[in-house]
What we know:
Elements: E1 2-8, H1 16-32, E2 35-41, H2 43-48, H3 54-70, E3 78-82, H4 87-96, H5 102-107, H6 109-117, H7 119-122, H8 128-131, H9 133-142, E4 148-151, H10 156-173, E5 181-184, H11 213-221, H12 242-250, H13 253-264, H14 270-297, H15 299-327
Parallel strand pairs: 1-2, 2-3, 4-5
Helix pairs in contact: 3-14, 4-9, 9-10, 11-14, 12-14
The structure holds tryptophan.
Tryptophan (TRP) binds next to strand 1, helix 9 and strand 4.
Amino acid sequence: xxxxxxxxxxxxxxxxxxxxxxxxxxxxxxxxxxxxxxxxxxxxxxxxxxxxxxxxxxxxxxxxxxxxxxxxxxxxxxxxxxxxxxxxxxxxxxxxxxxxxxxxxxxxxxxxxxxxxxxxxxxxxxxxxxxxxxxxxxxxxxxxxxxxxxxxxxxxxxxxxxxxxxxxxxxxxxxxxxxxxxxxxxxxxxxxxxxxxxxxxxxxxxxxxxxxxxxxxxxxxxxxxxxxxxxxxxxxxxxxxxxxxxxxxxxxxxxxxxxxxxxxxxxxxxxxxxxxxxxxxxxxxxxxxxxxxxxxxxxxxxxxxxxxxxxxxxxxxxxxxxxxxxxxxxxxxxx
Length: 335
Ligand code: TRP
């Protein structure tokens, strides 16, 4: 089996951008039976830019695990773990910090963009922890010998940096670490209800997996449609309509064709089109909601899933740390 490691920062509920971007890919991997999957809830990484709101990070660890379980990730097939509960990750991060230069971290395009966006938090000088999070992410992946890392496009520079660290380590200390490969999920980035290229919490344009019927109604009813279409029987252009964009995600191709045809002929108004989309979103979400409700009502089961997953992960991490310390001549007083 191929060892897969991936993760998320627990900074908020997951939305349909995550769902179509990465979560469906994980489900596919789970169902194929070809992979041994570890999913890491990156609370330490979340603290690098949320260090002043620890209660928010803690609350979101719970939200994220419930999101995972409710979309059908199955704890009997996937190992879920909390990053801060694996001390070997922090230890390995320290070892790796000798193998990476400040200049190289500052050049990382993902980190660079994020620092520019976080001027308010960091002011003139970024923290050591935030600048160094790619190093800790390299530790996340390699302590579990992750071979494949399914991620979005924005994460590619982080995986590249991880690969460099691995090569450098293996060069100096011997071939101990596995060099991971990024697996890009095919589906493109999902746009927000306001037509923005990116869906995100801070942009206020996301549809969450945990949204209520009412929230979904409100969001879809106010989604941007063809601005030139004023009256219901004006012919519309589906290519510039967010409702058509979401129909492609949630509706069958036949339904899509149908609404587009009727729109172009001015035969279907936007309200009727939105209603059909809302119904299809609710259909897709129904089993997700049912599972969410179950786990919200059984918090002790969620605890057990996290404890068991983290314990299993810890055993793997300990094994690997032993080999790493041997290679680095840090295996004092070992038999
Ligand atoms: N940086 C990732 C994100 O923001 C989260 C993450 C942490 C991760 N550790 C990881 C992803 C290891 C893949 C592998 O989404």
